[in-house]
Structure prediction request, 232 residues.
Amino acid sequence: MNAQQLSERLTRVASYISSGATVADIGSDHAYLPCYLIHQGIASHVIAGEVAKGPYESALNHVNEEQLENSIIVRFANGLQAIHKEDNVDTVTIAGMGGPLISTILDQDKEILSSVSRLILQPNIHAKAIREWALLNEWRIVAEEILEEDDKIYEILVLEKGSMTLTEAELLLGPFLLQERNNVFLAKWNKEAKEWKRILEAIKSAELSKEVQIKKEEVENRLTLVKEVLNV
Prediction:
């Protein structure tokens, strides 16, 4: 992967960015996505934010190597604090983290999102946490995607400001993904269902403390939802 040729998951993230957008890529790592967005003429300006020193320096070096200093600003900052008011950022991307961590990043500095109209989020796991955050904070899902790359399954969620309602199944599985039910979606949830069945079997021989009972009920509930949807 490089500035000219992204991974499939990041290429799909880029596809949801409107032409001429001002983007903040949070947790930018090597700044491959920001460089790609400028090279392809998709974004007008990009902020590449990194909280870790090593990735920040890698991003800075990469932007310099690509001679994109006039279009990309690399900032050493925690989460959304990489965005300054004068940047006029309208689109935020956060990719390659767990859903709970992405939700925490969004929640820590919510006021910074006041001028942002679109969030493009790519959780590696637990996308449900992002859907829960969206419901609580008046963001609605306008698109979702699920794909497999290098034997790993990724989800992409695109949010815009507005309210929505989700059923329990849509919260867990994704409203758009649930409608489409592509092969990657089916493979993911069939695998999850098998794992939940294994957990429930193991719990049978465990002492039912309060914590174990809560876990058991949670797993049973999720398994019931998936069974109803996928007939597994």
In short: The beta strands are 21-26, 43-50, 72-76, 91-97, 118-123, 139-149, 152-161. The chain has nine helices and seven strands. The mean pLDDT is 93.
